[in-house]
Structures are given as structure tokens and as C-alpha cells.
Specification:
alpha+beta; 5-stranded antiparallel sheet; 3-stranded antiparallel sheet; 12 strands; globular
Length: 226
């Protein structure tokens, strides 16, 4: 993983996005506070416990994203042209116009859209949610991403950063952990934790894994490639 990309991801996940006395973060329960307290690791894998599975956001982002010269140019030129705006959901109209005018961005490519996504609205196993938009420049897929560093889903998003997406399919499909179905070893895995659980999968405290009929349901994360 590129060192510069890790630095960008780390700074984004550590960004103080504020706190409000009406949110549910308490004294230090917001994601940015926990990240500053515990630090950012890019070596963590999928964690499993009795409540489900979790994909660590830093490892996920580092495995799928690259901060290249185009990302740098977009961020700097946008700031120069729009000093009072930010690369965020609230300024999406201006962002779209800017990307088209200065970089010839296209929003109708594979997995690209002018509609911003928010993973909070999907089933996913990420430890933090992401909000963003995807587009193509010269055939390569890029995205603007905001990490949700707060407590409540409606607020606490970081400033947006621009990344090149190495494998857009893996980025979106890799947000959920699959589980092998031990009763069908040649295929048809459980696509999600909930599918496996609904079929009778249970957590074994001794082996620290999920089992079905006494056989392990091995997890697999497409994004992290294991």
C-alpha cells in the first residue's frame, strides 16, 4: 500500500468532526475520538464475535483506494476555485460542475453515478460508514469519500478526500463478509452474516467462529482478499 495513501486515510479517520450535547457520543464515544484514542492500524483483519462480523475501515480503505496525482490536482484546484466550499455532500452540485469542466469527468461509467451513496443506508459490515460519489476520468474510476467520524448517522462526516478506486466491484461488494456454507462445499456461500444466521449458524465461544451443524462457516472478505 502506498505510504501517501495511508497518510491521507489516517488523517481522514482522525479528523475531529465535532460533538453536540444532543448526540449520543457521550464523553468519548464518537468515531474520531475512538480513533484518536486507539490509533489507526492498517494490519487489522475481519473481527468476529457473537454479535457478528466487522471489517476495519482503515484496512478496507487501504486495500481498495489510491491517492494519486489526479486526486491531488482535483483537491487543490477545487480549493483554489471554490475556497468557500468543501468536497462534501452539501456542495455536490458545484463539485459535479467542477469535475466535468476541469477534468472531463463522466458519471455514467461502471458503478458511477451523480447520486451520492451513504453506506449507512445499506447492509454492510464496515466499522465506520462512508459517504461519497464515484466518477470516471480517462477511463479510471475515482471517488470523493467522507468518513463518518461522529456518533449519530446524521452528522459528523469528515471533509471529503479524493481517491482512485483500484477495483470498484471489490470496493462495493467487499463491504459485506461472506461465509462458506459447509453443507454446500462446492459453492453457494452465504452472501451475508444475516443469511448465514437465518439458516442456523451459531457462534461457538470455544472456537471463536460461526458453525452450522457443527461445521465451521469460514468467513471471506472480498475487499481484503481473505
Amino acid at each position: 500500500m502506498d505510504t501517501e495513501t495511508k497518510k491521507i486515510i489516517q488523517s481522514q479517520l482522525l479528523e475531529n468532526t465535532g460533538k453536540h450535547f444532543l448526540d449520543s457520543g457521550g464523553d468519548d464515544g464518537r468515531a474520531w475520538q475512538q480513533n484518536q484514542k486507539n490509533g489507526i492500524s492498517f494490519d487489522e483483519g475481519v473481527s468476529i464475535d457473537e454479535y457478528g462480523v466487522t471489517i476495519p475501515i482503515a484496512s478496507f480503505m487501504a486495500s481498495q483506494l489510491l491517492y494519486d496525482s489526479t486526486c491531488h490536482d482535483i483537491e487543490n484546484l477545487f480549493k483554489l476555485n471554490h475556497p468557500d466550499l468543501a468536497l462534501c455532500y452539501n456542495d455536490q452540485g458545484e463539485i459535479e460542475d467542477f469535475l466535468i469542466e476541469y477534468f472531463g469527468a463522466e458519471f455514467d461509467g461502471h458503478l458511477c453515478s451523480k447520486e451520492w451513496f451513504y453506506t449507512y443506508n445499506w447492509d454492510n459490515d464496515l466499522s465506520q460508514d462512508l459517504q461519497g460519489v464515484t466518477f470516471e476520468i480517462n477511463g479510471d474510476t475515482y471517488c470523493i469519500l467522507q468518513s463518518h467520524n461522529g456518533a449519530d448517522a446524521r452528522g459528523g462526516h469528515s471533509n471529503g478526500r479524493v481517491y482512485k478506486m483500484e477495483e470498484p466491484d471489490y470496493f462495493f461488494l467487499g463491504m459485506q463478509v461472506q461465509f462458506d456454507n459447509p453443507n454446500e462445499p462446492d459453492g453457494n456461500p452465504f452472501e451475508t452474516f444475516y443469511e448465514m444466521e437465518n439458516e442456523g449458524g451459531k457462534y461457538n465461544e470455544e472456537t471463536k467462529c460461526f458453525e452450522l451443524d457443527g461445521k465451521e462457516c469460514t468467513p471471506y472478505c472480498m475487499a481484503l482478499q481473505y
